[in-house]
Prior knowledge:
Blueprint: H1 2-21, H2 26-31, H3 34-49, H4 64-70, H5 85-116, E1 119-120, H6 124-135, E2 144-148, E3 155-157, E4 163-167, H7 173-188, H8 191-204, H9 209-215, H10 218-230, H11 236-261
Parallel strand pairs: 2-4
Antiparallel strand pairs: 1-2, 3-4
Helix pairs in contact: 1-3, 1-9, 3-8, 6-7, 7-10, 7-11, 8-9
Amino acid sequence: TFFSLFMSVIWSSALAVFNYFCRKKHFFIRQLGITNILFLYLFSVIRMIVPYEFSFTQVIPPQGVLSDICRDPYIGQARTSRISLLAVLAVVWAVVSSVLILRFVFQYMKAMREYSSYRVREDEQCKRVYNRVMNVSRTQMNIAVRSSAHVKIPMGAGIFRKSILLPEETYSDSELYYILRHEYTHFQNRDLAVKILIHIYGCVFWWNPAIYLLKRDLAQVLEIKCDLDVTARMGNRHKAEYLSTIVAMLRNAGTRRKEKAF
C-alpha cells in the first residue's frame, strides 16, 4: 500500500539519520558492517511489502498534494480523464533509479577491466610479506597484489576478483606488511561490499535527502574501523610503525596529486 511505502521511507530515513549521528562513536564504528546495511535493506523491503498496522496505530488524514496521491493508491491505474499522479511519480522514480544503477554497474565493470590489466606482483618480497599477512589473519583469501603507475594510493578493488592495488614504488618489508595488512583487513570486513550496497541504496532512494547522510563520511568511518581492527592486538611500537606507514602513504598520495595538477 501507499501507506506502507510511506512508512518504510520514514523509518529507513530515521535509521539513516541515527547512523549519521552515531558515526563518530567508537562502538558504532566497530559494529558498522555488512550486517547493518543488510538490516537496512530488509527493513525497508519488508515494511513496503507487509502492510501490517498495529492496533494502536492512528491514521492522520493527509492534506494537500499528499491527499490527492492517497486517493489513487494503485500504481498503473489509468482513467480516461487523467493519469494517476502516483503512477507518474513511480515511473520517474523507477527510470532515474535504473539509470543511476546501470551507470554505476558500467563504471564498476570499466574500473575492474582497467585494474585487471595492471601488473601482478610475483616477486619474492611480495610473496613473503603476503604470506606473513595471511598467517596473522582470521580468514584466508586469494587476493592478487597488483601495481601500476596510475595508482596514487594503496587500495582494494573487486568483489569476486579481489585485488590490492599499489603505486609503483619500492617498499621495505615493514611498509609493505602494514599496507597489505590494512587492505587485507578491508576485505575481511567486507568494506567494499558495504560501500557498494549503500551506493545502490542511494541510487534507489535518490530523492530522499536522509540517504545522503548515510553516505557522508562513510569512507572515513570504514578507514577508522580498519585501523582499529589492525592495531587491536599490536604493542605500542608496532602501532606507531603502522600509523607512520599509513600517514606516509597519504602524504605521498597528496604529493602525487599536486604534481599531476601542475
